[in-house]
Amino acid sequence: MSEKDFKNKVAIVTGAGQGIGLEICKQLADRGAQVLLNDIEESLAEKAAQEVSKFGICQPAAGDASNVSFIASLVEEATTKFGKVDIAIANAGITLYGDFFDYNPADFNRVMQVNLGGSFFLAQAAAQKMKEQGEGGSILFMSSVTGHQAHKNLTAYGMTKAALEMLAKTLVVELSPFKITVNTVAPGATLTERTAMDKDYNNTWSRITPMGRPATPADVASAVLFLVSPQATHITGQSIIVDGGWTSVSPSPY
Question: Angle at CA 74, nearest 5°, toward 174 and 63?
């Protein structure tokens, strides 16, 4: 990709206050995109947007990316501030661990609402805007290796991630006539602020990952940028796994 592949493009990225989402925003802004950065925490969204602004144009948009009304306002805000929407990246998601036999309905419904509902309705709102604009666009969902391989205490979470990959395939039928691509990226173990709280995380995943280390946010963001770039306009309904080969062998970290 060239340094200005995203010049004059407008991107929405949800759940981008830190980690993978923040890195995606940095790479987009650095390559010329105008970015609307969402996070549920206002202070985190503002701090992240200031950081991304060192690389290019970025505005914060705090709010719950699983709330359908907020999602609609997010797309309208991007249009008002930047004139259009070219890229929508549904990065927001939550992980609520729990044994299958004890998993409670409240946790189940919240995981479904954020991971599936938020992604579905962001795609719907963004695709509607892209359809009206008549210039095509790119939508990307953030899946996970847990959508490919069983992972202890992540039954509900893994369901949502597998479903997002099927959603991308299904939307090919709906969105291709309007030149809108829709793909997913499935990260494996990744070093972020959240996973850094586990002091054994890096060592554990370095030991069981064929490439010898967990991913960095930049590893994942690079795959995302490719799929929403001009180089990928004939790629749709696909998923790229970024896991250093873990799903090929799938040893448990437990």
Answer: 125
